Amino acid sequence: MKVGILGAGQLARMIALAGYPLDVEFVFLDPSADACANPLGEHLHGDYNDPRLLAELAARADVVTYEFENVPADVAEFLASHTQVHPAPKSLAVAQDRLIEKAYFRELDIPTAPYAPVYSFESLEQAISSIGFPAILKSCTMGYDGKGQSVVKSLEDLKPAWEQLAGAPGVLEGFVPFNREVSIIAARSISGDIVFYPLSENVHRDGILRIATSCEGDSMQQQAEAYVSRLMEALNYVGVLALELFEVEGDLIANEFAPRVHNSGHWTIEGAETSQFENHLRAILDLPLGSTAAVSKSAMVNFIGNVPATEEILAIPNVHVHLYNKTPRKGRKVAHATVRAETKDQLDSLVKQLATLADQVDDS
């Protein structure tokens, strides 16, 4: 069985590593000559919309998936007319546009923060009059890791925020006074079976995920499962999906979803019976889904910009390091480490040690 992946970054790399024990082969399409997943399969080097390479990918792969949601939807549509594509192109189309995404949440009775579309400076002024300060102006498309976003706290912030959009459509969102940020990761197979991982509690800085901690038995688990299953059923979704949420006074509000394996689920590699990466492959190949039960208390710490010395990371007990073979660069995710412990206090202590190492090399 050969799986094609649009993109050959660290997520594709981890999918491929999970696929090797299942005797799955991989072919990647990626415009980067030195993409970090390249050593784990065939590499078709070129643009995602190159018709020759797309035809070759469709011919070589039994099924195609993707590692990030900014793959052009028409590319996924073209591939779907020639081979299996999971998740389906509709999932990409919804996730790629924040305005469409939020309307979709509302249609499914999944609550969101208040929002309004922005197409001009005048519409931004009108939107802020109804949303109020503070708010955040986001581009409708191509935003990730905090990119394409501006916080507006007063009238003086409106013009610079609008100028940053450079005329692109946007959405103004009201600030949510959340208690914490969480995400739920689920997998749905071709047969329609769904499994859910324990909630992840997430810590961001500068729009980039820094720490994700598994929360087995969390009081918000049932509500999160209801929302994500509602979303997956509506999309007839196949694969792993991550739904990011805010907890606000004992309720959950949707932020966004990612139609792919997700950074906040990296702890599942060592911390769950079956990792999100293996379950993604099981789902798109219509194999029985694996148990998502946590094997211990677990967490993940990202390394941004650069990586501490490997020996420093491994000197911390119960740690597993994952190096992506990526050139260090400001704001770039270049590695992560997972850690396990028997008690919450032990886990918090180990995470603190890892986070200290991460902060020493973080240049974001």
**Pattern of helices and strands:** EHEEHEHEHHEHEEHEEEEEHEEHHEHEEH
CATH hierarchy class name of the largest domain? Alpha Beta
In total, the number of domains comes to: 3
Task: Determine the CATH topology of the largest domain.
Answer: D-amino Acid Aminotransferase, Chain A, domain 1
User: How helix-rich are the residues, as a percent range?
Assistant: 25-40%
Secondary-structure arrangement, i.e. CATH architecture of the largest domain: 2-Layer Sandwich
**Structural class per helix/strand content?**
alpha+beta
List key phrases describing it:
12 helices, globular, D-amino Acid Aminotransferase, Chain A, domain 1, 32% helix, 3 domains, Dna Ligase, domain 1, 9-stranded antiparallel β-sheet, 364 residues
Structure description:
The protein has 364 residues and is of the alpha+beta class. It is built from twelve helices and 18 strands. It has helices spanning 10-19, 51-60, 73-80, 89-95, 98-107, 121-131, 158-165, 221-235, 268-271, 276-284, 310-314, 344-361; strands spanning 2-6, 25-30, 42-45, 63-66, 84-85, 115-118, 135-139, 149-152, 170-174, 180-188, 194-196, 199-205, 208-215, 239-248, 251-258, 297-304, 319-323, 333-341. The strands form three sheets. Strands 10, 11, 12, 13, 14, 15, 16, 17 and 18 form a nine-stranded antiparallel sheet that branches. Strands 3-2-1-4-5 form a five-stranded parallel sheet, with helices on both faces. The chain has a four-stranded antiparallel sheet with strand order 6-9-7-8, sandwiched between helices. α1 packs across α10 and α3 packs antiparallel against α4. The chain starts with a strand and ends with a helix.
